[in-house]
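Anyone able to model this chain together with SN-glycerol-3-phosphate?
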Amino acid sequence: MKFFIDTADIAEIRDLAATGLVDGVTTNPSLIAKSGRDFLEVLAEICDVVPGPVSAEVAATDTQGMLAEGRALAKVAQNVAVKVPLTPDGLKACRTLSGEGTAVNVTLCFSPAQALLAAKAGASYVSPFVGRLDDIGSDGMALIAEIVELYMAQPELETEVLVASVRHPMHVVEAAKMGAQVATLPPKVLRQMFQHPLTDKGLSDFLADWEKTGQSILKAGSAAQ
Ligand code: G3P
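re: yes, here you go
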């Protein structure tokens, strides 16, 4: 499974990219607004730090506007994936941009029917929002299971399921078990995935016992006499 990070915070991206675990980045207009940065400038910077796909979302709502914006975004770097909303206009733009060789991420997907349309439109990625479904008392992960099943039953569809609106590590674990190809994680969730109290306790106990030996791995024969 590929891990993308869902942020436009360049400091966070640099920090997490250094782990070697980040395969791409997703942004959206809210994350760009939160960054306080110029969109194209921060996009170029992110594309430089992370060689994998970097999703950048159009703001226009009509096909022609989305095409103009999408082409401008795609010019920023070769690893830009243009994000369009799951609307009739968005899917028309998806079809054209995909035909031009631009990777397209169709966002704001909330049903298997929508996911089927995105794949038919040639999307490289479809982004179902699991957390926002959970928020309204629906089952976000059930949607992922349905989309994965649907795409597997139609092998000619090449769209990857990009699990978005992730709120906690179990969303990621469940998505991986279901066979989703990508999850986009808020930085906090990626950091949470490292954590377990028994890892901390075990490490602390090992270090205390190692201290007692008086040895240093880098100094041969250093055992305390
Ligand atoms: O980038 C799309 C998605 O991940 C947004 O998540 O937390 O705003 O529902 P959230």
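The two ends are 50 Å apart (CA to CA).
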